Amino acid sequence: MFLLMTLVSFVRVAYETKKPRVSTRGRNSFSDKSLAHTRWNCKYHIVFTPKYRRKVIYGKLRVSIGQILRKLCEMKDVEIIEAHAMPDHIHILVRIPPKISISSFMGYLKGRSATLIHEKHANLKYKYGNKSFWSKGYYVSTVGLNQKTIEKYIREQEADDRIRDSISKQEYVDPFK
Predict the structure, then answer these.
(1) Is the confidence at residue 158, as pLDDT, over 70?
(2) CB–CB of 154/83 below 8 Å?
(3) What is the pLDDT of residues 100-140, one digit of tens each?
């Protein structure tokens, strides 16, 4: 009897001192997303180029290509965190759900965007061939704790390139003339 009372009092003390369970259901941290049974934060820095690095994306097509890429990402529930079109390539920082592989997403993005670009701008078909707007391949890197650094790099790369170009042009000036 004494043993039973000691056991009951021990369980009661353990139960009363136990910290209450805090549910995290419904709470999303700032950077995590969730699916049915998954919490995820998959960010990728992607760089891809038009075929032969033609500088068509920087002129009149820049805004149009940006709209097409945003619409396609929205259709796949991919969030564009930061993006910038350079004269001969595109940088994009995206958050892709884990149910989509990066290779299948890039195949979808480049293939469908090339079709939409050629539909919207029919004159490109004569200049650049039959619906082959993007070059093969792409660069991808996962983004971890250095997200702010990559966002800054994407935002400021064009200005840095202009500064470097102006510096390098000064090197070729003949100082004896």
Answers:
(1) yes
(2) yes
(3) 999 999 999 999 998 898 888 777 666 656 667 888 999 99
Q: Which of 145, 46, 157, 27 is nearest to 95 (CA)?
A: 46
Q: Residue 114 has which token pair?
A: 């090339």
Please say if the pLDDT value at position 23 is more than 60: no
Residue 73 CB partners (closer than 8 Å, separation 6+): 79, 80, 94, 109
pLDDT: which is higher, 4 or 65: 65
Q: Is 153 a catalytic residue?
A: yes
* Contact (CB, 8 A) for 99 and 36: no
Q: Which of 52, 108, 138, 153 is catalytic?
A: 153
Q: Which residues contact 32 (CB under 8 A, 6 or more apart)?
A: 39, 40, 41
